[in-house]
Structures are given as structure tokens and as C-alpha cells.
């Protein structure tokens, strides 16, 4: 494909390029091969512009970079927002793409919502996939990408790969990092959802307002003009602002929730294994059985239903699908029931709001004590730690603060910061496996155990840079091993 043609289709002005053939795109100079367009971006760790000459030496035919950057020996595509221009250009190269694409943003619930949207489409007979924290999930397999929002080249090539496999519907998760770094751009996005907004990632965004602005790029710029904004109507001021932004862009507004205009949640009754919902849609009231526990999953399931309906799926098939939704890996996943009969749940709550939602989800099912084990990640927003301690202490009966990916920080210092917000019912225990073992051992028949923070993760990240190592650790698996070991001991079996 010729550079000039790609640029023209992307609406980017360049001089020449008629004879230059493009054979790929890269944002890391180590991935440049002859014929590559290189995106040189200023990052938070290094400046990609420092690698331009090495990229050209490796065969880059064009470099998308700020006007001030020096490019010799290749076409300089000079743009003030090079990440955006690069995305638009690359999107012309990675084709075809699935015909129906939707995106989900919000502090919590993105992974659950994209996964449920995928399930609803699939049950309605579409070939559907999702992209997010759990990786790329297609009708045939699930492959992890490492990040919630992959880099732009991986993202676009995944999208066209999915289209080539015959996938027609994709729901992707738009994290605030991904949005602010233009990691998913350039594709037609028919509908975008906003789940909720609360504290996280202030290490990166600085203030709540800036964090919100990053998310709002989804409504302001990424979703198609004339597309749909699906908004879960929590009670927060942020929801109202998101609705206002959708109005300003003249998007079709589709609101969901207790105050929802399009899908109204009229009643919710927890049952032993799920919940009964009464909803109103298109002037009709209907009762649904959601086979998942937790109020927060109602928000995600109905937001997913909104996305499916907004993209033309038959509502009858959507409502039928809601009653058959499968649990999302690591989100209130029941790992095991202890020998005494206490269920042990694993959840990915890693913000104060999510921890509150997860504990609130379990509370109606608790007849004895609610026991909670969690930690906070290193090299991440430090200000969320004490509020997480406060929430856990307030909502659970007993709390153990342990380690969760300490990365480059001193784990004891992280635990200390969490404990600053916690009360007398909380204590610390560095070793996560030990903490899980002890709680499972002490859990009585009517207790419920929540192990929060790592969800689907399969490793404990310790150290950073060259000293970084990942020790295998899977909360679900560890809980099962501990429960099995304890029941074996209880029955007097020998090793
Ligand atoms: C802070 C952050 O988000 N960093 C991400 C970002 O890096 P950056 O653009 O700042 O890159 P940088 O490392 O400073 O390098 C600048 C540029 O130079 C290039 N480079 C760099 C070195 C070199 O030798 N040659 C070279 O060309 C890099 O490819 C890059 O284009 O872009 C990189 C490529 O896309 C990501 O790998 C990297 O994710 C890091 C590893 C990370 O930990 N990100 C986390 C915080 C993250 O993004 N999380 C969110 C999830 C949040 C949530 O779910 O709530 C996510 O979407 O995954
Ligand atoms: N709608 C919701 N409201 C409040 N909390 C939620 C909601 N959905 C999920 N949570 C909480 O957040 C955790 C993470 O959920 P999920 O993975 O779906 O969110 P996410 O937005 O993708 O998170 P991340 O930013 O890490 O990718 C859940 O395990 C649960 O504790
Ligand atoms: N995507 C989130 C996940 C955090 C999960 C938690 N286990 C941690 O490591 O903090 C982040 O990168 O902040
Ligand atoms: Mg996610």
C-alpha cells in the first residue's frame, strides 16, 4: 500500500509518498522493518523521538512525530498530536475491520461489560469478540495481551485479524490510559458506554478532573458522530456530566438504571444464586432472572444489554441472553467452598469504590461473618490505599491486608498506608498465600470469604525494571489448594 494513498484516506497532509510502499507500522524502534511507518512519541518513561535515527536505519520509510522532531532519510509526517495521526494512518492500513464495534469506559465494570456484551451478541447468533483486561476473547479462544488496552498497532491488527476470521461484532475496553495515549483510535465506533467514575489512577492523571477528561475523549472524539452513548445512571455528579457531554456531541443518548430512560431498573431481589430483576424497556415491563450475584453485575449486565440493543440486536434475544449470562473470570468468582461450608469468592476490586461494591454484593448472603483479604498495587495511585482500608474495615467483619503486586515499592510501606485508613478489625500479613490459608482455616459455616484485588491475575509482580519478577500466583487456585489442604488435615490424612 502506498503512503500517499494511506495519508489521503486518513485526511493527513504529506508531501510526496506516491512511490513509497508501506509494509507495516511500529511505535517501538525495535520492531521496525524495511517499509515500516514509525510513530515517535514522547512517553512517560522515555522520548520515542530519541530513536528516530535508529528506526530510519532499520528501514522506516516515514516517521510520524511532532513538527520540532528531526527526521532525516524518511518522510516526516509532522503533527502536533502524533499519536492521533499515527492511529488514523494505521487504521487505513489494518483493514477490514468488524462491522459493529462498541467501546466501554468507566472506572469499574469495563471488563465485565465488554465480556457480557460479547456473550449477549453471541447468544443472539452473532460472531462476537471482546478486547480488554482479559485479553482478546473470540468465539474460539481467549488470548491475553498483557494490558487492558493494547498498544495501537496491536489493537488495530487484532481488529483486522478478527474481521478476517469472520468476527462481525467487537466490544472493547477503553481505559483512561489507552484513551489519553490514543491506543484505540481510527475505527468506526457505533456506540460507547460509560459505567461509573470514582477514584483511581491519580498517579498518572493527577486530578479527578483530568482523569475524567481522559475518559470523556470516548464521547467527545472516539465514538462516531451520530453514534450512541449508553450511560449507567448511578447517582453521581460524574454521570450527569457524562450525559451532558454526550448531549453536547449530539450523540443518541441511551440511559440505563434506576433513573434510566431507555432501560429502567424497577426492582432487584437477590436470590440464592442470582437475582430477579424487574425492568422496563420500550414501554414494557418484564421480569428477568440474572444468574449472577451482586448489585454491580446488574449495572454491567444492563449496560451490556443497552449496547447490544443500541447496535441493533433483537431485544427479545438480549433479554433471553441476560438470563443465561456466564460469570466473568475473577469477578465475584466462587473459587471454593471450605470444609466448614463457607464460600470463598475472588474478585478484582482494586479501588475503594469497587471494594465497596464487592463487599456490598456479598453482604446480603452472609449469615455469619464477612472476611476480607486484599492489598494495593505498588507503583500505582497511592491515595487510594487508605480509602480502601477504610472501606474494607467498615464493610467487612474482619480484614487481612496483604500484598498485591508490590512492583517497585516496599510492600510493608504499602500495607502501612492501607492500614492507616483501616480500623481495629484489620491486621496485616505479608504473605498472600498464608493470609488466604489462615482465613480459610478460620472461616465457619455461615461465613463468606472475599479475596480481592487480583481477580483473574496469575502472577505476583515483585520489583521493577531489571529486577522485576513475576511469581506464579492465582487467587482461585491458591484458595482451592488451601481449602483442600485444610480439609485433608481436618480428616487426619497424612502427606
Ligand atoms: C504509563 C503507561 O501507560 N505507559 C504505557 C505507554 O508508554 P509510553 O507511551 O509512556 O511509553 P514509554 O515507555 O515512555 O516510551 C515512549 C515511546 O518510545 C518507544 N520506545 C521506547 C524504548 C525503546 O527502546 N524504543 C522505543 O521506540 C515506545 O514504544 C513508546 O512509543 O505505552 C506503552 C506501549 O503502548 C505501554 O506498554 C505502557 O504501559 C505500561 C507498561 C503500563 O504499565 N501501563 C499501565 C499503567 C496501563 O496502561 N494500564 C491500563 C489499565 C488501567 C486499568 O485497567 O484501569 C491499560 O490500558 O492497560
Ligand atoms: N458497575 C460496577 N460498579 C462498581 N464496581 C464494579 C462494577 N463492576 C465491577 N466492579 C468492581 O470492579 C472490579 C473490576 O471489574 P472489571 O474488571 O469489570 O472492571 P474494569 O473497569 O475493567 O477494571 P480495570 O480498570 O482494572 O480494567 C470488580 O471485580 C468489582 O469489584
Ligand atoms: N489495571 C489495573 C489493575 C490493578 C490490579 C491490582 N492487582 C494491582 O496490581 O494494582 C492497574 O494496572 O492499575
Ligand atoms: Mg478491565
UniProtKB/TrEMBL annotation:
Record key words, sorted: ATP-binding, Cell cycle, Cell division, Cell shape, Cell wall biogenesis/degradation, Cytoplasm, Ligase, Magnesium, Nucleotide-binding, Peptidoglycan synthesis
Motif stretch (Meso-diaminopimelate recognition motif): 404-407
Subcellular location: Cytoplasm
Gene Ontology MF, one: ATP binding
Its EC number(s): 6.3.2.13
All residue ranges annotated as the Mur ligase N-terminal catalytic domain in the record: 23-75
Binding annotation for UDP-N-acetyl-alpha-D-muramoyl-L-alanyl-D-glutamate: 148-149, 175, 181, 183
Mur ligase central domain sequence ranges: 104-308
GO terms of biological process kind: cell division; cell wall organization; peptidoglycan biosynthetic process; regulation of cell shape
Keyword check for Ligase: yes
Domain named Mur ligase C-terminal: residues: 330-455
Pathways per UniProt: Cell wall biogenesis; peptidoglycan biosynthesis
Residue numbers of N6-carboxylysine PTMs: 215
Any one Gene Ontology cellular component term annotated for this protein: cytoplasm
Protein's UniProt keywords contain Cytoplasm: yes
Function comment: Catalyzes the addition of meso-diaminopimelic acid to the nucleotide precursor UDP-N-acetylmuramoyl-L-alanyl-D-glutamate (UMAG) in the biosynthesis of bacterial cell-wall peptidoglycan.
NCBIfam families referenced in this protein's UniProt entry, alphabetically: murE, PRK00139.1-2, PRK00139.1-4
Protein name: UDP-N-acetylmuramoyl-L-alanyl-D-glutamate--2,6-diaminopimelate ligase
Gene: murE
Amino acid at each position: 500500500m502506498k503512503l500517499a494513498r494511506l495519508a489521503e484516506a486518513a485526511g493527513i497532509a504529506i508531501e510526496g509518498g506516491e512511490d513509497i510502499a508501506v509494509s507495516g507500522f511500529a511505535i517501538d524502534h525495535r520492531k521496525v522493518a524495511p517499509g515500516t511507518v514509525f510513530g515517535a512519541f514522547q512517553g512517560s518513561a522515555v522520548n520515542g523521538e530519541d530513536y528516530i535515527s535508529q528506526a530510519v536505519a532499520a528501514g522506516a520509510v516515514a516517521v510520524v512525530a511532532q513538527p520540532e522532531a528531526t527526521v532525516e532519510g524518511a518522510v516526516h509526517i509532522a503533527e502536533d498530536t502524533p499519536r492521533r495521526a499515527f492511529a488514523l494512518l494505521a487504521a487505513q492500513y489494518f483493514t477490514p475491520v468488524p462491522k459493529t464495534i462498541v467501546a466501554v469506559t468507566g472506572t469499574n465494570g469495563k471488563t465485565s461489560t465488554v465480556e457480557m456484551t460479547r456473550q449477549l451478541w453471541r447468544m443472539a447468533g452473532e460472531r462476537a469478540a471482546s478486547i480488554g483486561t482479559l485479553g482478546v476473547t473470540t468465539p474460539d479462544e481467549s488470548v491475553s495481551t498483557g494490558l487492558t488496552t493494547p498498544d495501537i498497532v496491536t489493537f488495530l491488527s487484532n481488529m483486522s485479524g478478527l474481521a478476517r476470521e469472520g468476527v462481525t461484532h467487537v466490544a472493547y475496553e477503553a481505559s483512561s490510559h489507552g484513551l489519553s495515549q490514543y491506543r484505540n483510535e481510527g475505527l468506526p465506533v457505533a456506540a460507547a458506554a460509560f459505567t461509573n467514575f470514582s477514584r483511581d489512577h491519580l498517579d498518572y492523571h493527577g486530578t479527578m478532573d483530568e482523569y475524567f477528561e481522559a475518559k470523556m475523549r470516548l464521547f467527545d472524539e472516539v465514538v462516531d458522530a451520530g453514534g450512541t452513548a449508553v450511560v449507567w445512571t448511578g447517582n453521581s455528579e460524574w454521570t450527569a456530566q457524562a450525559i451532558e457531554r454526550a448531549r453536547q456531541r449530539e450523540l443518541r443518548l441511551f440511559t440505563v438504571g434506576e433513573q434510566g430512560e431507555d432501560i429502567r431498573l424497577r426492582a432487584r431481589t437477590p436470590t440464592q444464586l442470582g437475582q430477579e430483576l424487574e425492568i422496563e424497556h420500550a414501554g414494557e415491563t418484564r421480569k428477568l432472572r440474572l444468574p449472577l450475584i451482586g448489585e454491580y453485575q446488574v449495572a454491567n449486565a444492563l449496560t451490556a444489554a443497552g449496547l447490544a440493543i443500541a447496535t441493533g440486536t433483537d431485544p427479545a434475544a438480549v433479554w433471553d441472553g441476560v438470563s443465561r449470562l456466564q460469570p466473568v473470570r475473577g469477578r465475584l468468582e466462587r473459587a471454593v467452598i471450605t470444609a466448614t461450608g463457607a464460600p470463598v469468592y475472588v474478585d478484582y476490586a482494586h479501588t475503594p469504590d469497587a471494594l465497596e461494591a464487592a463487599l456490598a454484593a456479598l453482604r446480603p448472603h452472609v449469615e455469619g461473618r464477612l472476611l476480607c483479604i486484599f492489598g494495593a498495587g505498588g507503583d500505582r495511585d497511592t491515595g487510594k490505599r487508605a480509602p480502601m482500608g477504610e472501606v474494607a474495615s467498615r464493610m467487612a467483619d474482619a480484614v487481612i491486608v496483604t500484598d498485591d503486586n508490590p512492583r517497585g515499592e516496599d510492600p510493608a510501606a504499602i500495607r502501612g498506608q492501607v492500614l492507616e485508613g483501616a480500623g481495629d478489625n484489620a491486621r496485616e500479613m505479608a504473605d498472600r498465600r498464608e493470609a488466604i490459608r489462615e482465613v480459610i482455616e478460620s472461616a465457619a459455616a455461615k461465613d463468606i470469604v472475599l479475596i480481592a484485588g487480583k481477580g483473574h491475575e496469575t502472577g505476583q509482580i515483585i520489583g521493577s525494571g531489571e529486577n522485576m519478577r513475576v511469581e506464579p500466583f492465582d487467587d482461585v487456585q491458591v484458595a482451592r489448594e488451601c481449602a483442600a489442604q485444610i480439609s485433608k488435615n481436618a480428616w487426619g490424612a497424612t502427606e
